[in-house]
Amino acid sequence: MKKKIICAILLCTVVFSTTLWGCGSSKDTAADTSDTSKKASDESKSSTDKSGKTKITVLRPGDQEKVEAFMEPAIEQFEKDNPDIEVDIAYESWAGWIQKYPTSFEAGTQPDVIFWWDNKLNDSSAKDHLVKLDDYLNEDFLSQIPDSVWNLVNTSSMDGTYYIPSSVDTFALYYNKEVFEAAGLDPEAPPTTWDELLEAAKTIKEKTGKPGIGIPAITGSEVLEEYIGLFLNQSMDAAVLDDDSMPQFDNKEGLEALKFVEQLIPYLQDSPTEYGRGELRPLLRDGGVGMLIDGPWGVAAYQAAFGENLDESKIGIATVPLAPNGKKIAWAGTNGWIATRDETAEASAKLIEYLMDPEVIIDHHVAYGSAPLYESEFDNEAFQYDYWRVFYDEAQDYTLYGMIGKDSATPAAYYTALEEVWQQFILGQIGPEDALKAASEAAKGVTSRNQ
Amino acid sequence: MNNKSIVGKIVRIILCIIFCLFAVIPIYEALIVSLTPYSNLLEAQLVPHYFELSNFVSAFKLIFGNVLNSFFYACCATVLTTLISVPAAYVLSRYRFKMRQAMLFILLMSQMMAGIVILPTLYRMFQSLGLLNSRFSLIIVLTGINLALVVTILHGYFSTLPVELEEAAALDGCSYIQLLVRVIFPISGPGIAVGAIFVFINSYNEFVVPLFLLSDASKYPLTLVVYSLLSDTTIRWHIMAAASLIGIIPPVAIFTFFQKYIIQGVTSGAVKG
Amino acid sequence: MKKSQRKRVICSLLPLIILLLFVYGYPLFKVCTSAFMGFGGATAGQFVGFGNFSIIKGEIPKTVVTTLIWTFGSVIPAMILGLVVAMICNRSFPGKKVVVAFNLLPYAIPLIIVASCWRFVYNSDFGIINVLLKNLGLIDEPISFLGLDLALVAVIVARVWRAMPFAFMNYYSALTTIPAEQYEAACIDGAGPVQRFWYITMPNLKAITGSTLIVLTVWTFLVFDIIFGMTGGGPVDATKTISMRIYQEMFSMKNLGTASAWSLIAIVVLVIITIFYWRLMEKEDD
Fold first, then answer.
1. Is residue A442 within 8 Å of A420, Cβ to Cβ?
2. CB A249 within 8 A of CB A237
3. Do the Cβ atoms of C252 and A450 come within 8 Å?
């Protein structure tokens, strides 16, 4: 007993002394950070005074290894070109950042330059922080970006340029050629219409016993809404929500889309709500599922297994099948750069221009698995393969409907509200009619909260 | 030995095995996953087929700074809590004053209140004070939520101590501060130890408070890093498992070492489940 | 009380009171006011009466039921299992120390790591339960433990795992306080093990059962980490307890009003349980 008491007291002493040491060493950090937004921005100002350098932080959310691969060399070069600017790179996973950006902005600790979403420009946490970039950027620069891309970005409610789109990601149909062969399907003729898609999914399930098509329906990310959104967009030839954030899918075309998805349900992978996009890719890679609808982000996962040239691999990539109305419509999301602090706006804008430089952008797209944005990117070796054309062409000749919530102060709320309904629908708890009604009510509910 | 006691023995052994299995299965599974290379993850294994120690190396590199953060927050909270609790618990157990019962009730109430209930408004309050994302405010909150626990433990402990020593000290003309420093702190060692161990483990394990208050990854405690691994688009199960295993070493070590104190603390009826 | 004593009391309690007011007092006060204030759209900053409650009223019944199942579904099994282990360990046998140490272990593990470890166990590809059942030939297709039907059970099991040591510790030390003479006397009277359990062990454990039940209930009621880490509240709303709703209203919906409304519901429940517990302790002290 006595021994233990001595141990305990010893522990206390150790704890105490470590703390003293810790307090001593972290004193200045604690003092600095205890005051936030204002101080944080003051800090960047004052750091300019001290070393004559402007200090900025840049964040490109995503898997750290991929981001590092292009960001570190790019920033090194940028710092060489701009000796008066010092850049810190922050790392954060997508889901982590989605959870955290409200706190980050509200605490005033957001990075100066952020790879952002087009639908979160009106987000109430971030909106007031965005810097109008027109005064800092040169004009030619903005005109390089294709119109098709700008069409996706919500500029109507803004009086200038706050966001520079840097990648456009559209969906494509990924399929496993070996599974197709095993099911007696032609591996070179992927489905091009909804009917063919259903037929292929059914054949795969019946012939091989494997799920025909995968669906990401995991809770708490935005993937399921984007998936169902694709079918709704195609069928309606309209966005999921209108400019006033009211649902426009509660109609015949919307019902047609859901009825089609309902037919797919028997051929989906088991327990869909346990799979996100990341969990489905190994399944397709290993032939555990016949087809997937996924963005270009999936490419890297297959390249890691089969080498850079997927055209020669067992993974086929084709445009998403068309709805019975035959219109070329696709879901698309854009990501791009924003600057968030007036004090560092000049340096931030310089960095953004640099990150949008064709050479840097290629490295970015290659490293992260984003589709080429400019035609000129196809000159690069990494984009020589045909499958990249699929994504690029889709962004060029399809009508694109982007992510929901563009005009809302709470874009994430729509995903949360709709996700519950779509999950119920995918799990067979409710039929298409009820799902449509419930989803419509849910979206209206979110909108009415902000009116 | 009769048949009955043999049957009883067998039943007991079987039950022991079942309970022990239940208790270690998640840890065991984490161990299997943490030893598997990424490309073989989907393989079914009942016993580890691989021995990929590099997973631990990469996990360690990833979380080392955050474990230090966790240690720092937990140590600061422990010291602060102890410093505030000792005098408070002392007067609560030695003096009878009007608000004493009310004070004890408030302490109990605050122990019952889980963080998630107050965090939304606490978060807004810190936002308007400009105190978000600061190590300092995290430590203050960690201290605040652990105070009641330590005061209750110490209150119980002081009640078991004889008053004579203090009376002697008072006769010697000790001032109150002197009394606290020279008499009370030294004799309350075991009580402080029990409280300190709990504050340390609770603060080290805390997830919700830093989730709300911190936004800068370099300040994250271990628990937040485990969550960000858990929420990756492509979950790196092997790294997550290794990080989890490394992360539980400190609390488990303390726990095993001070098992007796912990049981003592828990059964004093003052500790969260 | 003398003036100097009063000063002493006040000085000693002041830091405690200030900190409690800062961390609990003011936020709780704000919860009570925010729950009746508007935060989105036209009503922002205005008093809205029960407006926030009417926004969430559709979700209240399901959420409350889920929370109750979650709470009692994990507290009661945890207590029963804890009692069983405590009874086993109440006599000495070789290896007892190991059994005690193993069964206390989960208590030290951070809840979010509990969540991550159980996600490994439940995984449909490499999770040990599915692998085991498959190897035994009991199933062909993996069981979807985190799917719609089983998700709530799955998180409850994880919670039982983490809560059991607490019940175990309480029962373990309570059992040692039961006087051996009582058992001996019962043995002489010819009481069997079952009778001894019902007439001696149980009455002696009544007090500890009451307090353990209350503490575990309160602490399970609002556990956030395990559910957040394992299912995020899904699929659909299978595991959306009140704490998940608070988080969702706060960060997805960005509405402090509705988040506070949920908090207030939880607080009312907590206050009632606490008063009950307070009474119980006072009775014991008498």
1. yes
2. no
3. no
